[in-house]
Structures are given as structure tokens and as C-alpha cells.
Design a protein that fits this description.
60% of the residues lie in helices and 12% in strands. The radius of gyration is 31 Å and the shape is flat. The two termini are 58 Å apart. The strands form two sheets. Strands 1, 2, 3, 4, 5, 6, 7 and 8 form an eight-stranded mixed β-sheet that branches. Strands 9, 10, 11, 12, 13 and 14 form a six-stranded mixed β-sheet that branches. The protein is α/β, with parallel strands linked by helices and 754 residues long.
Amino acid sequence: MNNETQHNTSDYSQQRKLLAVMFTDIKDFSKKMQENEIAAMHMLETHDEMMSNVVEKHGGNVIKRIGDAFLVTFESVVNATQCAVEAQQNFHLYNKGKTELEKIVVRIGVHLGDVIFKGSDVFGDGVNIASRIQSIAEPGGVNITGSVLEQVKNKLDIHTVALGVPQLKNIKEQVKVFNIIVDPDAKTRGRISTDILIFKTIITRKRTMALIGSIVVLLGTVFGVWQYTRTPVSKTLAVIPFESTSKDENEYIVDGLTDECIERLSKSSQAMVISRISSFFYKGKQLPEQQIAKELDVRFTVSGTVRFNNEQLKISVQLTDWVKQKILWNEKYEITKSEILQVQSDIPHRIASFLKFELDESEMKTTSEVNDLYLRGLYEVRKSKRENNITAITYFSNAIEKDSLFAKAYVELANAQLFFNEWNWDIDEKWILESEKNCMKALAIDSNVIGALGVLGRIFIAQGNIQDGIRLLEQSLKQNPNDVSSLSTLGKIYAFQLNNPMKAVNYFTNAAELEPNNALTISNLGVGYAMLNNNFDAIRTFRRALVLKPDDYMSLQNLGLVFETISQYDSAIISYSASLASNPLNAQTRVSLATLLIYQSFYARAESLLITGIQLEPSHYNYYYELGIVQEIMKKKMQSTASFTRGLNQSLNEINRNKSYSEPYLFAGLFYARLGKGDDAIRYGNNAFAIDSSSDNAIGIARIYAILGNKSLTLQWFQKAKTMAPDFNEAYLRLALDFEKFKNDDELLQLARR
């Protein structure tokens, strides 16, 4: 009896094994069978042949085929991962030029875990987990677990995005899931080719978003307590730029008609109206209206055409419900140019009537001549160029000369004047003062004029009056819930000045809903996510911004910062390099890239990068500092000392030019420390902190003491900086070149981990 029991236990033990398990499944196979059984079976035969070939190539063992699914085991987890990626690439190549019915779109999951053999079949959580993560993979994608990533991350050149710890059905174990970003066309399947693909393509992950549901729920709960939240609306609307048969000289009338329709409809809190920037993204693009509605995620669209015959206009406009696939209202107008004011008012009121929401009935009366000047000004100012802005100011000023009670012209004049400061065209204070004066005139004429409070709020922010600026911007949003400028400004204030990223994300999210095609608005949202350490959404959002504007150096730089935060250093280097190619004078990116290159021992490349920076900007002391460090590492002692000395002189020159700016004091302290002059180093570091007691200067003094080898004061100042900003963590220490003497010190590491 005992012998038999021992034999059975031993036999059972031999059936348990640690293996890599790959589970695959064809998307929508059952649906394709219903549509065309013969075509679907042919597709399945092709799938089975292709999958069998790639599995055999990588040494896999096909355990069984379950309809359109494969269950495969591998002795090597590296082989399993390579097999999954190559299979998806093969299917992508096969699908080119095929119909939807012919395409083979597969989801794949790979897990490393215990499996139990019973005959020729396998069972256990190892199999179940592979199946569960496959089911939540993107079509054409590969999901892997943390156990797989740990084994392959130093052996395969792959790029992954962490998807969190999803709740897997009937799995009690907490399983970390990662998505391999597959470049379908790359031969090497490396990170470089993958990142190039990412910069060109939006990666939409509807299923993946469910994996971070806990984050979304948390954010939603917290956002609910904030003072400003968007009122839920069922009316989502976009005004597509009206088309014209006119010559260029009349284009401002057509655009003005679209502008006025957007502005007047935006006043309602009962409708969400897509902003002008995102609406005009489609100007001149010959896209089906239904596709535009889908891309903007709206139910209703307004569209129209304008035909000119000398002074006569024929305007045709319609309102379409894309849920019901029905034109709700259409109208034709035959007017003269002088009658355009009437149509500007009538169209939005008729739309509001059909959609059953209220619209402000008050109208700002003026003459057709003044309105024409006003429309010409709008047309110029929205080109977002300095020379056009000057022309716009002339038009608005002429409109005011002819009608000194036309409040809207004062608002737009103030807005154009403020742009000189906001866009750094001319930072002379006169523009802010003139803008403020014209805002006050507009409010004196009409205290409820739309836009004035928003512009005035931005003026107060520019003047440093944060609290009054916030109050006015929030009042502006009560007047116009669709005011993207106020939403974006509030988001930036809470993110960058009040250190409240959660509230910032709320405002940025609302702005992005209204401006889904504005790269800057989308990028701001990505910054908010990054500040919340929601790295998955930050990466996804920056990529979305880059698809809209591939050469946006700030989005590329921010993407690099996120990759650096999560230790995806190869991807960070690629992002920084792309940012620098777009803007070679971006010193922050150049220094960040140089630091990463030094960390990864690419010393010559870092040295060359910094020398190029100095050639472009000889007075930039930060370049000399990094260059001195890398030359010191390369044992180029004389060059290193020369770089530190030149950098010190540059920082001292900057101090002489501006004694109230703390950064050159801090760098002078760092240079003195590197040159072995401790007393001078400490004195200049303390001067920097006295001017600006920020976390950057606190950590700067810690850096000085670390260079000088004073452990106790390094710990003291590091702790001080850490209490001011949580960013000084273990990841920061890993790349911080100045803490080299104490990087492995237990006390410093404990401080960083707090």
C-alpha cells in the first residue's frame, strides 16, 4: 500500500514542469464563419500552416488546437517570446492588401509558470494565465507576464509597456501584465524600429484601458470633489468648416460664419461643442462627414456651403444626427454681404432649437461694415503668426473706431495683444497693459461679454496674480463651459505652479475633449498624467500628440522623461534624440540625453553631443559641466579641468549680469566643487538657496556636498529636498552623476525610497 502511494506521488511529480506557455486566438473568427464559411475555413487553414511553421522554427510543442486557438509550450521562454513576435509580424505581412474577411488578426499571450501534464495535454494556472492575458491583448498584439519579462529583458531587444495588474478571471494570483510593442515591418524587431513606429502611429488600446480601471476609478472619485467639473451633456456637436466657392479674398467671411456658429453654440452648458482649432483641422480635407464625426466623437455635425456671386451669397447649411443617420434640419439663405450678421445669429439659434437646448438670446448689435472688419481680424489672428497678429490688431482697432460700443472687438483686440506675451513674440509689458485696458473697456460696455473674463484671467496670471487669475478663469467657464483657453490655462496653473496634478488632469482632460486634434492640448494632458506617475497613460497621450504633430520637440522630450522614469533607457535616448533633431537649441534635452549616454557608458558619443551644444551656445554653462564630467570619466584630466574652468567663468559672468537669478550661483558652486575648492562651492550653493529656496537648489547643495565627499551633509540636504519634492527617488539617484561616491550607501538609498 505504502509502495503504491509512493509510486503515484512520484509519477505525479514527474508530470509537473516549469514551461513557457503561449496561447493564441483569432479575432472574430466565429463572426467570419457566419459571414462566409468557405472563406473563413480557407483563412483558418492558412493561419494553422503559418502558426505551425513559426512554432516549429522556434522549438515549440503544439499541445493542441482548439478551433482557431493554439496552445503551445516551450522549454525556452526566449524562444516563446520570439515566436509570438515573429508570428504577429508574419500575419501583418500576409494581411497587406487582403479584404477584412481574408485578414488573419490574432491575439497572443505568453506566460512562464508551472504546468501539469496529463497524457498529451497540459493543465494548471500556467495555462490559464496564458489564456487570460491573451484574451485581453490588442488585436495583432502580444501580452506577456512579469515572469516572462524578467527572463527576456536582458536577452531580447524588445519594447514593453506596463499594463498593471488586471483582475484575471478565476486567477487568485496577482499577475503583472506587459504589452510588447510589435513593429510589424522591422527585421530586427528592436526598440529603435519600434519607437520609430510609435512616433508615427497611434496605438489604441480599448481593452488595455480596462486594465488600468482602478486608476481611472480613483481619479474619477477624486475629481468629483473638485470645484469645477464639466456638467454631463448629451449633446456633442462639431461645426465643420463651411466650404466656399469664393476666391481667397472672401475666405474670411466663410471662416467667420463657422467661427460665429462655434462661439455662439459654445455658450450653452447643455452642449459640448468641439473647439475651433479641432474643427478647422478638417478645413480643406475631403473626408466624409460621418468619418469626421467619428474621429471627433460627436453625435451631431453642422456643415454648409457658401457660394459668392459678386455681393450676393447663397448659403446652404444642415444639421445631421449620426446616431440616427438623419439630417435634422437644413436651410438655404440668399443674402447680400451686408446681411451676413442676420445669418450669423439665425443659424446657431435654429440649431439650438432643433437640439432642444437654450442659447443666450442677447445679441451684440453693430453695423455690417464693423462686423466685416471684426471678421477680417478673427481671420488674421487665428493664423497664429506675429505678422498676422499685427494685421488683426489693425482690423480690431478700426472696428472700434467705427463702433466704440462693440464689446466683442475690444475682447479680441485684448486677446491679440496678450498673444505677444504668451507666444514670446514681444515680451514688452506694454502689451499686457494694453490688453488689460481693452478687457476693462469691454466689461464696462457689457459685463457679460463672452471671453473678456478669460482673457483678463490670463492677464492676471501673466502678472503673477494667481488667485485672482484662477477666479476669473473659473467665472469665464461658467459663462462658456467650452472655453478651451481657460481650461488649458487652469490646467497649467495647477500643474506647474500649484503642484496639484490631479486637478490639472481634470482641466486638461476637459480641454482635450474639446480639442482632440490639438497636439499642444494633448501633450499638456500627458504632462499631467506623468506628474501623477500614471506612466501608461502619459506614454499613450504623448504618442497621440506626436501623431498630430510628429516634430513636436516638447512631446518628444516629455516622452523621453517618462521612459527615463520607468528605466526604459533605450527608448528615452531615442525620444531625446528625436526631440533634439527637431530643436537643436533645446539645452534641457541635450543634457538629459548626454546624462543617459554617460550612464550607459557611451562616453565618446556624450562628449561629441556636448561639444556640439557648446558650438551652438558657447555661453551655456550646463554643457561645460556635463562635458567636464564625461571627460573626467574618460581620464582626460586636463580637458576636464579646462571644461569646468570655462563653465565656472560662464556662470560667474551670468551672475554679474543678473544677481537675482539662482541657477548660475548653483552651477558656480558645482564647478568649484569639481575643481576642489570646497569653501567657494558651499558659499555659492548657499547663495543660490538664499535667492530661491526651491527643491532644485536644495538638491543642488546635496550634490555639492556629495562631490566634496561630506556624507552627513549630503544626507541632510537630500532629505530636505526630498521633503519638498518626491521626485528625488531611487530612479533619480541611479542617473545623478554627482552622487557617485554614495550611490550604494544604504542610508542615502533609504532616503530615496521613502
